[in-house]
Amino acid sequence: MKQKIIITGGTGYIGSHTAVEFIMKGFNVVLVDDLSNSEVSVLDRIQEITGTKPLFEQIDLTDNNRTKSFFNAHKDASGVINFAALKAVGESVKKPIKYYHNNINILLNVLENMENQGISNLIFSSSATVYGLPDVLPITEENQTKRPTSPYGNTKKVAEEIIEDLTKVSESLNAISLRYFNPIGAHDSLKIGEAPNGIPNNLMPFITQTAAGIRRELKIFGNDYDTPDGTAVRDYLHVVDLAKAHVLAFERLISNQSKSNFEVYNLGTGTGYSVLDVINSFEKTTGISLNYSYDKRRDGDVPQLYSNPNKAQTNLNWKALLTLDDMTLSSWKWEQNLRNGY
Ligand code: NAD
Ligand code: WQD
User: Taking a C-beta distance cutoff of 8 angstroms, is the pair 301, 223 a contact?
Assistant: First the structure.
């Protein structure tokens, strides 16, 4: 019998790549999403990649009645991967209630329904933003979490605290929080990838849209940081590497290998790249000369953020394998496919 897993936010960018990896590993996946930031056609594209069209329900997971019926119908699931969230950092600063309401209520509803249906295993999508402005680099999981610089980021920090509180008293909950650094790139098939609505907030889609002529110019936010070339440094990782980590983390949960019922893992390559490094890689792999200029620093940005991913390597046997060049080329190929209707 195939094990069933529930993937919330499953038609989204990381959720869809993760669904593919779970299907390929023989899991029976059920996706749930309200489609507020993704498209239902992702299901057909997952089928083109894997040969299987996952079960899907369109539900706003802040609606507890509908969430309850959904969990009741899937009480035989062995776990939940909780991706569903709003993630636009800038919007969260302007509309904090929208972000706290959505991201925290999704989590509370998921946790409550897992408990009611006796579903134990949870993987939560967290973020490197929980480290705030770090004192030490590279960042290990031992580093103190700090007040994130946005309400979005704070929903991740608060969510981790909620899960941890619950694991202290719950008889059954077994949770892993995965702290993603900067996922970019797309699936090799070029059937799924990141498709932001409107003007992208993140660097990589802004680069590919500029190269595609959709945006006139990339603005580099700050060239006066205390970094080798003055631009800010991040730990970019390929979304397919990231997706694979979820399968390994889930296998750790279901085989009861966790050392405690709340574990956290950094997911990054461990290498920091500056904005200019990313642009140089993009220009090298695609042969395109990118139109960019320097602008002032963006509020809330930290100068440098990169991981020490050793804990994930030791405990999950996970390591990011794809390089920055793989990531920038894959992002560009996806952008082209997206514009050509996949
Ligand atoms: P995404 O927007 O592509 O996917 C999230 C999905 O959640 C979307 O399909 C959206 O429609 C759905 N959703 C939002 N609110 C919902 C609701 N109330 N009910 C049901 N579905 C809802 O984002 P992503 O990049 O795939 O991110 C997945 C998760 O990873 C999120 O929790 C995000 O905060 C986290 N994360 C992302 C990044 C990143 O850079 N992409 C980095 C760190 C953490
Ligand atoms: C990367 C670098 C920018 C756009 C955010 C969230 C984090 C996580 C990942 C989660 C920074 C610079 C960007 C542009 C630029 N999200 N940049 N010009 O800010 O590291 O992380 O996404 O869901 O929580 O905070 O990622 O891609 O926005 O920026 O110069 O037009 O690129 O200043 O140094 P960030 P990013």
Answer: no
**Residue 145 carries which DSSP code?**
P
List the catalytic residues. Answer: 152
Is any atom of ligand 1 closer than 6 Å to the C-beta of 272?
no
Q: 5: left (phi > 0), else alpha (psi -120 to 50), else beta?
A: beta
pLDDT digits (tens, 9 = 90+) for 188-229: 999 999 999 999 999 999 999 999 999 999 999 999 999 999
Where do the structural domains in the chain lie, given as residue ranges? 4-183+236-268+310-320
Structure tokens at 30: 């059920």
CB of 131 within 6 A of ligand 2: the answer is no
pLDDT at position 257 is 96
Position 171 scores a pLDDT of 87
CA distance linking residue 21 with residue 23, whole number of Å: 6
Q: Relative to the CA of 234, which ligand 2 atom is closest?
A: 20
Structure tokens, 157 = 């920090």
Q: In terms of CATH, what superfamily is 4-183+236-268+310-320?
A: NAD(P)-binding Rossmann-like Domain (3.40.50.720)
Residue 113 DSSP code: H
- Note the pLDDT tens digit of each residue in 256-279: 999 999 999 999 999 999 999 999
Measure the CA–CA gap between 20 and 169, rounded to whole angstroms: 34
> Which residues of the chain, if any, have pLDDT below 50?
none
Pocket lining: 150 vs ligand 1, CB cutoff 6 Å: no
Instruction: Judge whether 19 and 41 are in contact, CB under 8 Å.
Output: no
How do 182-184 and 273-274 pair as beta strands?
Answer: unpaired
E-only strand ranges, the chain: 4-8, 28-33, 55-58, 79-82, 121-127, 174-180, 182-184, 218-221, 233-234, 236-238, 262-267, 273-274, 292-295, 304-305
d(CA 286, CA 143) in angstroms, rounded, equals 37
